[in-house]
Structure formats: C-alpha cells, structure tokens
Amino acid sequence: EVQLVESGGGLVQAGGSLRLSCAASGFTFDDYGIGWFRQAPGKEREGVSCVSSSDGSTFYSESVKGRFTISRDNAKNTVYLQMNSLKPEDTAVYYCAAALVSGCSLVYIDYEYWGQGTQVTVSS
C-alpha cells in the first residue's frame, strides 16, 4: 500500500520556523520526484517546492524562495521541508506528493500519490 505521511505542522508566530517531514512507503522512493504543495481556505492548491529523483535538483516557488529548503533522504524514504521566516500568508494545509517524472514539477496533475496533509498556521 502506497503511503505518504506528513508531519511537523503546527502553530508558529510570524518569523518562526517549522520543519515538515514526508515519510513514504509502498513504492520505489528513489524513482520518484517529491513535491510539497499547500492549500489555504478558498484558494487553489499551490506548488511550493520539489526535489527530483535523478540528481536531487530542487525548485521553489517565488513566494517561498530563500525561506524554504527542501531535502530528501533516500535511505529513510523521507523528504523534509525546512520553513524559515514564516509569514501569515504561509498558513495552509501542506501536502507532499510523489511523481514518476525525471525532473521536478510544481504542477499538481503530474503527481500520482498524495499524503493527507498537515496544517501550518502562522500567527501575526
């Protein structure tokens, strides 16, 4: 059974940090690119960051570039999203997803497997 399980969300003040984790199982993790997406109430799902399977290259949306860092540990089948300098507009449910693509994509329809999400709330 394929599973992606997010953890690490919570409530933090503006300027603070959180580290999200995405633990994967049930598929060949090394072959999949992993992305982080977020969705705030009343808004569309937004691609935040991704890390490729092939060479570990990364990509960030403009809204988080310089503040968030994605990394993957293939030995642990886990991807992390370190979020620093958090802003109230970062408040959303954060999802990780897996895509069988060679590169790195922030397009949600490219992704085959999804986690259930973890809530991140940033207070002002």
What does it look like?
- The structure is a single chain.
- This protein has 124 residues and is mainly β.
- The chain has no helices and eleven strands.
- The strands form two sheets. Strands 2, 4, 5, 6, 9, 10 and 11 form a seven-stranded mixed β-sheet that branches.
- The radius of gyration is 13 Å and the shape is globular.
- The protein starts with a strand and ends with a strand.
- 35% of the residues are buried.
- The model has no long low-confidence stretch (mean pLDDT 96).
How helical, in percent, are the residues? Answer: under 10%
Q: SSE string, helix = H, strand = E?
A: EEEEEEEEEEE
Structural class category: mainly beta
Instruction: Report on the biggest sheet.
Output: 7 strands, mixed
What Rg, in angstroms, do the CA atoms define? 13 Å
Shape: globular
Low-confidence stretches: none
- What is the averaged pLDDT score? 96
Task: Report a brief summary of the structure.
By secondary structure, the protein is mainly beta.
Question: Main traits of this protein?
Answer:
124 residues, mainly beta, 7-stranded mixed β-sheet, 4-stranded antiparallel β-sheet, 0% helix, globular
Topology:
Blueprint: E1 3-7, E2 10-13, E3 18-25, E4 33-39, E5 46-51, E6 58-60, E7 68-73, E8 78-83, E9 92-99, E10 113-114, E11 118-123
Parallel strand pairs: 2-11
Antiparallel strand pairs: 1-3, 3-8, 4-5, 4-9, 5-6, 7-8, 9-10, 9-11
